[in-house]
Amino acid sequence: MAQPHPDDELNPTVTEGYKVGQAKTVQELANLDKEDESLQRWKASLGIGASGSGGGAKKVVLKTLFLTSPTRQQGDVVLDLTQKPDELARLKKEPITIKEGVDYSVGISFTVEGEIVSGLRYIQVVKRAGITVDRGEHMLGSYGPQDQPYIKIFASEESPSGMLARSGSYNVRSRVIDDDGAVWLDVEWGFKLGKEW
């Protein structure tokens, strides 16, 4: 896990006065307030059982980054984040095509292993010709360990349109980071705009 550079535009924003709480293991959380039935049901919904199913080191495993749009007949555009580093590097060299002037959403799927991860955020910076044209930061939240992937889809946005927007390609850098500053994903990919998907 890489540590972010202090002046990196991919660092998460900091809320003044916010302090990260003391980390607790899944077992410690499972044993809290055992007599409170509704709290136990809530903890079970988070994957925190009386058996304390956690254990091992905290790990976030990114599965996919995807673009979804009601205008795309062929389904989502999916980037497989489980590939080897040299295959991931191709994502930047071989840009995907996004149809100009349509609404689309970016989504991400991931699993959590070992212990609870808190304050997970997705940060994305889009550049064209080396100049930042967009930056987005989305709070994913806190998650307990589970085998089934969590899926998060961000708010819809409209892709640029026009001949100027279609000329050239865009470079995107996506990062997933938690409250402890652990970087779970730092990947570059590219897209270009076209008249069709």
From TrEMBL:
<comment type="similarity">
    <text>Belongs to the Rho GDI family.</text>
</comment>
<dbReference type="InterPro" id="IPR000406">
    <property type="entry name" value="Rho_GDI"/>
</dbReference>
<keyword id="KW-0963">Cytoplasm</keyword>
<protein>
    <submittedName>
        <fullName>Rho GDP dissociation inhibitor</fullName>
    </submittedName>
</protein>
<dbReference type="InterPro" id="IPR014756">
    <property type="entry name" value="Ig_E-set"/>
</dbReference>
<dbReference type="Pfam" id="PF02115">
    <property type="entry name" value="Rho_GDI"/>
</dbReference>
<dbReference type="InterPro" id="IPR024792">
    <property type="entry name" value="RhoGDI_dom_sf"/>
</dbReference>
